[in-house]
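Support request, please re-run this one:
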Amino acid sequence: MKIVEKIEFIQTDYPLSAGLFSSWKIGIESLNPFLRTRVMDFMIALLSLTDGNAQLDRFIVKVDDIPLSLDVLLKYDLKKSLEVLRNDMIMISPNGEVYQSKYSEYYDLGVSYPTKMKNIIERYVKALGQIEKHASSSQDGKKYLGIVSIEKNVLCKRFKDSSGKEYLRIRSEFIPFLRFLDLSDISFSNVDIRGLDLSYTNGAIDLNCVYKKSAENTNLEGAFLSRSVIRNCCLKGANLLGTGAIINSETCIIDDCKIDDSISLVSGEKTVGRQMIIEKQKA
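Re-run finished. Output below.
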């Protein structure tokens, strides 16, 4: 496969009909998980080289003088391309000013793992910050939800509890941007989600498998929950509006839990309605 030799950013002073990021969403989602991650990693690297206030729908990108598209990008060896593209990133502003952005040593095999991870996180956060700004100013901010792929080892960090048992927490750097991340391939097994805002994220969260089986004070409004019956979980103070959760009323703690008509309560083999949840909360 080919190696990219030159990348040009051409920033226009008018919005394009299809933005650099949003127009690729459907095509990227059709790729296998490995290739999807590789493409998104490349796109994150590109976005991290733009100005922090850049408008994502005002960029034309050229690879080796050819307008960038998903089909064009898939002809290249993306990992090797990123390894050699250190000084060839060229930004062209609307007024014609040209300058180069030096690519960091993120892909240098000589860089230690902690430094490499730090660089990865910084690149993600910079790009996600741009996406958040663009989504907040867009008339259809929902199109930016769940568009950035991420691996679990980047999203989460390992910790040990007092007994020495390992568990995972989502890195604090990503917490403000969770709804923009594609969490559909992320397992939340052994992840501590207590107190997090996971509203309107697209991860298939199985509350039976999270750390301590607890979603205490977690905002899950509009999130996609596993269709498994939730058993033996602490849902105290959780926001479950619009989740369609199926809860075993005999084994779960549901004090101060926010619910709506999408919630089903199971008692033994019997399914009951929202009223029983309200009555149990008042008891």
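The mean pLDDT is 76. The radius of gyration is 22 Å.
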